[in-house]
User: Which sequence fits this backbone?
């Protein structure tokens, strides 16, 4: 566990990474926020010097980066995957990839310089305010409202993204795709755009796909028919059976993670973007991580 004397602000941005949670809490989280991964152990003297420094900075930076603590004694699989030869070793993960790192107990000033070199600066603290629950929105009414807003401000790209998302809720995939294609570069990587693209990809995949009963029969005949499992999983998710769909996609990963250049992992990540049940997504992220690590 991370330092019991860590400041309360640090606790919000410091966590113990495990084999089961690494995919979701480190790799996926790093798509939005840089994650510093600290490999340490109880018996390591220099780790006890570096650890408090990292935790202090995690508190001071207010979420500009997350600090993942990996106990190499408790999580040897992660340490092996990162080829850890000595501790403490720290890696910076951004966008799901290792971008830099260092070994040894650097002084605080050098750690600050390391963060600054990668554009990581202290953020302003966020007030802990409970947001008011928004009333349910009629998607068709929302489309009408946003069409008028776009007409009034045709150069405001954010409104066009909002309209594309609303159109997807009403099944107007073609018009939504046209709007997404016309978005400027700064919005093409927006989380909402990525989710919308995943929805469009699922819809396109099912355009000429066999019906559910045919896919189920194919899998019953040959459990290793991963193409059928892929289509059945997507079809069930689109139809509203999120857990049934995720189970088929997870079974693809379980049977052959390298199928079609890693398709099982890729389609699961797309499915996590489409499925809105956060608890269900979290459960299947953990299942995926247990198969990958």
Assistant:
């Amino acid at each position: 566990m991370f330092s019991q004397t860590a400041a309360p602000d640090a606790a919000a941005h410091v966590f113990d990474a495990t084999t089961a949670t690494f995919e979701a809490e480190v790799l996926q989280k790093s798509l939005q926020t840089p994650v510093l991964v600290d490999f340490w152990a109880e018996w390591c003297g220099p780790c006890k010097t570096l650890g408090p420094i990292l935790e202090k900075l995690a508190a001071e930076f207010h979420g500009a980066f997350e600090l993942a603590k990996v106990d190499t004694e408790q999580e040897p699989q992660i340490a092996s995957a990162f080829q850890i030869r000595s501790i403490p070793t720290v890696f910076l993960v951004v966008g799901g990839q290792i971008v830099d790192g260092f070994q040894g107990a650097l002084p605080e000033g050098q750690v600050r310089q390391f963060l600054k070199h990668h554009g990581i600066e202290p953020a302003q603290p966020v007030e802990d305010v409970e947001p008011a629950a928004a009333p349910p929105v009629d998607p068709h009414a929302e489309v009408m409202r946003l069409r008028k807003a776009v007409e009034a401000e045709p150069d405001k790209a954010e409104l066009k993204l909002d309209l594309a998302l609303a159109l997807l809720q009403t099944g107007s995939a073609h018009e939504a795709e046209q709007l997404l294609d016309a978005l400027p570069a700064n919005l093409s990587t927006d989380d909402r755009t990525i989710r919308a693209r995943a929805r469009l990809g699922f819809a396109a995949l099912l355009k000429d796909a066999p019906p559910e009963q045919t896919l189920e029969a194919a899998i019953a005949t040959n459990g290793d028919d991963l193409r059928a499992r892929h289509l059945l999983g997507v079809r069930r998710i689109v139809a509203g059976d999120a857990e049934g769909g995720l189970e088929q996609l997870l079974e693809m990963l379980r049977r052959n993670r390298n199928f079609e250049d890693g398709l099982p992992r890729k389609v699961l990540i797309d499915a996590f973007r489409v499925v809105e049940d956060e608890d269900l997504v979290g459960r299947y992220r953990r299942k995926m991580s247990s198969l990958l690590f």
